[in-house]
Amino acid sequence: MFTKDDPQEKHGRVTLHDVAAASGVSKSTVSRILDERLPRSESETARKVRRVAAELGYMRDVAAASLRRGNTNTIGVIVPRLTDTVMAMLYEALAHACARSGRFAIVATTDDEPQADRAAAESLLQRGVDGLVLSTAREGDDFPVRLEKRGIPYVLALRSDGRSMSSVGDDKLGGYLATRHLLDLGHRRIGIIAGPSYASSSRGRLAGYRWAMTEAEAAIDPDWIVESSFGIDSGAEAAERLMGIPARPTAIFAMNDNTAIGALSALIKLGLSVPEDISLVGYNDIPIVSRLSVPLTSVRVPFDRIAAEALDLLCRGAESPNDRIRIAPPTLIPRASSVHCRSALR
């Protein structure tokens, strides 16, 4: 119930005018003090204004403020699918980064289909988002170029096209770290479950694998490189193919934790033990992999940092031409799924 003297009873929603009148300052002063985007002032006037605003029950009218500024403080995020834990983690990190700056993130999924990407972008833009974060970039796709020509703010995350503003992990370094780890354990026959070649993340990790193998002067059998779709089922199929090779690998680097989980299930069905018969390394370090019956060695990707940098690029732009692509370094997390090669110990 409102009291007799409650401003909301008299005037409805408490306004900046109400707070200004009760504080004895101008409306512009109140607006500046209560604007959460500006540095917080601790002056006596600022403290008084905030106290009066709280007592009156003032709530910022986000819609009206957005109309005045011509934006909505809403960011559209496009991901292939949220059933992929990696993409869910990226979206959650973006949502948290948005919340810290007074923004809100909404997501659309496209099953990694180029035409669906375009439809999702149009739908989000019609709903008034201020810009787009795309995690669906693919080699040869001109969609980012079309967005740029239309003057639509956008940034790429996790995958890059090599020219657009992007926030990504250092996939080449991550692929190198995973492969170097297995080489250091004495493995020389290392199979790789690669991702789709249209994804820059997949190409980068494969380049890191080749880098480490070449550095160690370890031969690469073309049959050891099997492409997948980043999914659990494709990871299982790839592992079965690798185990069917006459000189089969003693270790597998899966470019994605989902494919590693699929590979693990296939290896068990084939009667093989991880890590006794074959070592296994994944990528991304999603939460479940440390809880598997055999905790998975994985390459940890700093999703929070990637999300924060993506939002900064989208909202403030690059500081220089060299700042257009921001790269966050990954970290190898060794666990029980990778051990010394038994043949190397003989």
Automatic annotation (TrEMBL):
GO molecular function list: DNA-binding transcription factor activity; transcription cis-regulatory region binding
UniProt-listed SMART domains: HTH_LACI (SM00354)
Record-linked InterPro entries: HTH_LacI, LacI/GalR-like_sensor, Lambda_DNA-bd_dom_sf, Peripla_BP_I
Residue intervals of the HTH lacI-type domain: 14-69
Glycoprotein as UniProt keyword: no
Swiss-Prot/TrEMBL keywords: DNA-binding, Plasmid, Repressor, Transcription, Transcription regulation
Superkingdom of the organism of origin: Bacteria
PANTHER family listed in its UniProt record: HTH-TYPE TRANSCRIPTIONAL REPRESSOR PURR-RELATED (PTHR30146:SF148), LACI-RELATED TRANSCRIPTIONAL REPRESSOR (PTHR30146)
Name of the molecule in the record: LacI family DNA-binding transcriptional regulator
Biological source species: Azospirillum oryzae
